[in-house]
Design goal:
The complex is a heterodimer of chains A (256) and B (255).
Chain A: E1 11-19, E2 24-32, H1 39-49, E3 69-72, E4 75-78, E5 92-95, E6 102-104, E7 107-108, H2 111-118, H3 136-146, H4 153-157, H5 159-162, H6 173-183, H7 193-197, H8 210-214, H9 221-237, H10 240-249
Parallel strand pairs in A: 1-5
Antiparallel strand pairs in A: 1-2, 3-4, 3-5, 6-7
Helix pairs in contact in A: 3-6, 6-9
Chain B: H1 21-44, E1 49-50, E2 53-54, H2 62-66, H3 74-85, H4 88-97, H5 129-149, E3 152-153, E4 156-157, E5 159-160, H6 161-178, H7 181-189, H8 207-219, H9 222-244, E6 252-254
Antiparallel strand pairs in B: 1-2, 3-4, 5-6
Helix pairs in contact in B: 1-4, 3-5, 5-6, 6-9, 7-8
The chains are: A alpha+beta (256), B mainly alpha (255).
The structure holds iron/sulfur cluster (SF4) (2 copies) and FE2/S2 (inorganic) cluster (2 copies).
One FE2/S2 (inorganic) cluster (FES) binds next to loops of chain A.
Chain lengths: 256, 255
């Protein structure tokens, strides 16, 4: 393959956040433009030529690992999936995720999300041991959720966390996707509606759709995960007729 | 989080053609206008009937059945009000536009203000959306009945501009009602496994799955149906009101 080279004389300025959670500022860097260049390429150029100590997290450079999340011009995006030429003549401001504590420069500490994932009980409780024998159409629904790359862009934009800081009350859209994946699995037998109603706090989401708008995997977070989960919580906690019907059904013996 | 680390303005984005506030401002203006208009019609108008045409605000004519002379539409209007007011799509729009929670995605809010989402009064009522769906579905049946009447002129089949408008309106309202998230849940969303315990033997998906899939497809566009049906209700009432005021004649397309 031919090496792509810089367009002669064409440069772009990137305003990159340098600092930590307590103080920091934007620093301007000049980068020669290469056709098809993404923001992560530009950051690598800066690391190689101007600021070897610039902290940025990345692994795959192919929108698969979810490491290179940040905010470009205030919008949560993957650095490796955002092309410079998409910005035309606009300035480009590169910041870390700001809903989570900034460790340094473009790296935020997202461990809060993994801690919540550990608290997700009950976990997967299949009716029979895998492998499962199911038709593809039956598993399509949960496969949408498998696409999640844990980039946490949705967590970053969710106003419940970002603006209201209710980390103790709501787990955020990414964990709703994770819960939906278990809860709607055709073979799963456990119920997580109580968890959703209490600690995971799905009631704090006001379905404003911002998470879905930023998801780089195109997961319909609100339509396919959060709203169906809210409906399941409504079944259990807000619907007296459904509760009555459940009570009618309960006395009948169930097959072992 | 420290406020010193405010990200740059979100308006300079390659992903949006319109600035991010355009949608919220549109919602603010159009919803307000619609609410004011509906309030005026429901409270101050005594009838929505022009020969065989009936305005959707006045259906079913409960006031007429009960012989209530003033503001007869009030008796029914609370159903669509609560139905749309607790609709997931309308919630999304008015939380953005009216409550600024958030006004645009990623926009700063006043974090010191207590936020309880849909867990506390008043927004907790949204959790009963399904009940308003049941009632709205009944009203929808009456609207279909009215639409049939709109094609019958003195016992004869006919088509007027008003008949076409009413048909369009009821079709859009049906699309809006059937693409509802609560209905999607009712029709199949509450199930985890559609073909269990047949598993792999179930080559052809069961009826319930196929309906859930169909409703899911319509549900993708629920927001569009919400806007379109709101506009069509508005247009239908305006049309009938213009007829009632003798400002325009009803053009008969087919006798
Ligand atoms: S829809 Fe809910 S989870 Fe998604 S960003 Fe909005 S409040 Fe957060
Ligand atoms: S749901 Fe989408 S935005 Fe959220 S973490 Fe997963 S891939 Fe990222
Ligand atoms: S580097 Fe893996 S998603 Fe960007
Ligand atoms: S969600 Fe919109 S009508 Fe039910």
């Amino acid at each position: 393959m031919m090496e792509r080279s810089a367009v002669p004389g064409k440069e772009r300025v990137l305003y990159v956040y340098r600092g930590d959670d307590y103080q920091g500022e934007e620093v301007a860097y000049r980068v020669p433009v290469v056709p098809g260049m993404v923001v992560l390429d530009a950051l690598h150029f800066i690391q190689a030529h101007e600021a070897p100590d610039l902290a940025v997290r990345w692994n795959c450079k192919a929108a698969h690992c979810g490491s290179c999340s940040g905010e470009i011009n205030g919008e949560p995006r993957l650095f490796c999936k955002t092309r410079l030429d998409a910005y035309g003549s606009l300035d480009i401001h590169v910041h870390p995720l700001r809903t989570f504590p900034i460790i340094r420069d473009l790296v935020s500490d997202v461990s809060w999300n993994y801690e919540r994932a550990e608290e997700l009980v009950p976990g997967f409780r299949p009716a029979e041991p895998p492998p499962f024998h199911l038709q593809q159409w039956e598993v399509d629904r949960v496969e949408e959720f498998h696409r999640c790359i844990e980039c946490f862009l949705c967590q970053d934009v969710c106003h419940v966390l970002r603006e209201h800081g209710l980390f103790g009350q709501y787990w955020g859209p990414q964990l709703m996707v994770r819960i939906a994946e278990l809860e709607m699995h055709p073979m799963d037998t456990a119920s997580r509606t109580d968890l959703l109603h209490s600690a995971a706090g799905v009631g704090l989401c006001n379905v404003t759709h911002c998470c879905t708008d930023v998801c780089p995997e195109g997961i319909e977070i609100t339509h396919d995960a959060i709203i169906p989960l809210k409906e399941r919580v409504a079944d259990q906690h807000y619907d007296p007729i459904a509760a009555w019907l459940r009570r009618l059904r309960r006395p009948q013996p169930t097959s072992p | 989080m420290p406020s010193s680390v405010r990200a740059a303005s979100a308006t300079a984005s390659p992903t949006r053609y319109w600035p991010p506030w355009a949608q919220s401002v549109t919602t603010l203006v159009v919803f307000s206008a619609f609410v004011l208009y509906s309030f005026g019609v429901v409270v101050f108008e005594r009838t929505g009937q022009y020969h065989n045409y009936l305005s959707p605000f006045f259906s079913p004519p409960l006031g007429q059945w009960l012989g209530i002379p003033f503001a007869p539409a009030v008796l029914v209007a609370w159903i669509p009000l609560l139905f749309r007011g607790t609709c997931y799509y309308y919630r999304r729009e008015y939380y953005h536009a009216f409550a600024a929670d958030p006004f645009t995605c990623g926009a700063p809010e006043r974090p010191e203000r207590a936020y309880t989402g849909e867990r506390a009064w008043p927004w907790v009522v949204s959790n009963w959306h399904r009940y308003w769906w049941y009632l709205a579905a009944i009203v929808l049946l009456f609207l279909w009945k009215d639409t049939v009447s709109a094609f019958i002129f003195q016992g004869q089949f006919g088509v007027g501009v008003g008949s076409v408008i009413m048909l369009g309106n009821v079709v859009l309202l049906t699309a809006y009602t059937l693409s509802c998230h609560a209905f999607r849940h009712l029709i199949g969303g509450s199930r985890d496994c559609f073909a269990c315990p047949r598993g792999i033997e179930a080559v052809r998906p069961p009826v319930r799955f196929r309906w859930w899939q169909r409703i899911s497809r319509w549900n993708r566009h629920h927001g569009r149906w919400a806007w379109a049906s709101m506009m069509s209700v508005w247009a239908t009432d305006v049309y009938i009101r213009l007829l009632l005021a003798h400002i325009i004649p009803d053009v008969r397309l087919l006798k």
